[in-house]
Amino acid sequence: MIMELEAHGASYYLNGNKEDLFHLLKTCGVNMVRLRIWTDPYDENGDPYGGGMNDLGTTAALAGRTVENGMEFMVDFHYSDFWADPGKQVKPKAWGSLSGSALETAVYLHTVETLKSLKNRKLVPAMVQVGNEITRGLLWPDGYVDQTESMAALLKAGIRGVREECPDAKIVLHLDFGTDNQMYRKWFDAVLPYELDFDVIGMSYYPHWNGSLELLLENMNDMSGRYAKEVIVAETSIGYTTDTLGCKGIVFTEEQEKATGYPATPDGQEAFLRDLYAAVRSVQNEKGIGVFYWEPAWLPIPGCTWANKSGSLYMKDQTEAGNAMANMALFDAAGNANPALLNLKSM
């Protein structure tokens, strides 16, 4: 969201001093940034859908700032013009009539062209996520999870593009609900015959929705051992307050606070992350390799919502589009770094 946030006046502070966000993150100990990319996040009039406007130009600019400040980056391909998750995997507008090998080719070419463009700017990702939260597949209906052969073919197309352009990058396959071991086993068992060439199993883990750290660790241990892959928490967050901060659509409330077992305070946020990092480090055979926080810098700034009107129409989403994550950032409402970020190096 950072380009949109900064355009609306967002500023970030470390110990009272105003800092560039990427320099601040590096100073605090962050070593990699996860950057989503959408194919064409604009309506027929050329107006952006919102949510950070993460097209190729935006992603390249953010990758540049990441690398300039001494960090690596992951590219997260949504293979959609806007948000892709277990509830929606909408084909890009330009691919709407494609199916079969033609759709696979589109996935391959989009992957290759994106990575070539980044490489031409001397920006090479350390990790690439082929699809976002693909628990129920991608590029519906062709790649719906029940169409396992078609889903696997589309994933193979993206993977082939990554291997050709960025052979040293680790490839991530990412599902949601990181505590659901049965679901993970079912999904990865189903694709096993197709011999997908990937390196890391990515998991979303939100304590207010997904349950205990113990369940997450059990799943990470099982997945890493069962499939001989590294595991990573590709998304996580927790509230540092239950105050809505004047925003619409806030998802973290007192009810969610109770579900986490951590107080919704800056210190509670730090305690959760400290425990999460310890859990990931304790995965057997050192297969737990890291955690990405989503989205650390999303301040409660008016107009910086996850979708505007045209974006909601594109997704056919009736949910109120607000600043849903504002009270779960790693900064307070004024942009001051929270203890969870200030003390990252000690975790």
Which SSEs are present, and which pair or pack?
Elements: H1 2-7, E1 12-14, E2 17-19, H2 21-28, E3 32-37, H3 56-68, E4 72-77, H4 100-120, E5 127-130, E6 137-138, E7 143-144, H5 148-165, E8 170-175, H6 181-191, E9 200-204, H7 207-210, H8 213-227, E10 230-235, H9 254-260, H10 266-281, E11 288-291, H11 309-315, H12 339-342
Helix pairs in contact: 4-5, 6-8, 8-10
Main sheet properties? 7 strands, parallel
Question: Major sheet: order of its strands?
Answer: 3-4-5-8-9-10-11
Assess the beta-strand content as a share of residues. Answer: 5-15%
Spell out the helices and strands N to C: HEEHEHEHEEEHEHEHHEHHEHH
CATH H-level homologous superfamily name: Glycosidases
Structure at a glance:
With 347 residues, this protein is α/β, with parallel strands linked by helices.
Question: Can you describe this structure?
Answer:
The chain has 12 helices and 11 strands. It has a single domain, classed as Glycosidases (TIM Barrel, Alpha-Beta Barrel). The strands form 3 sheets. A 7-stranded parallel beta sheet has the order 3-4-5-8-9-10-11, covered by helices on one side. With 347 residues, the chain is α/β, with parallel strands linked by helices. The model has no long low-confidence stretch (mean pLDDT 97). α4 runs parallel beside α5, α6 runs parallel beside α8 and α8 runs parallel beside α10.
Describe this protein with a few key phrases:
seven-stranded parallel beta sheet; two-stranded antiparallel sheet; 11 strands; 37% helix; alpha/beta; 14% strand; TIM Barrel; 12 helices; 347 residues
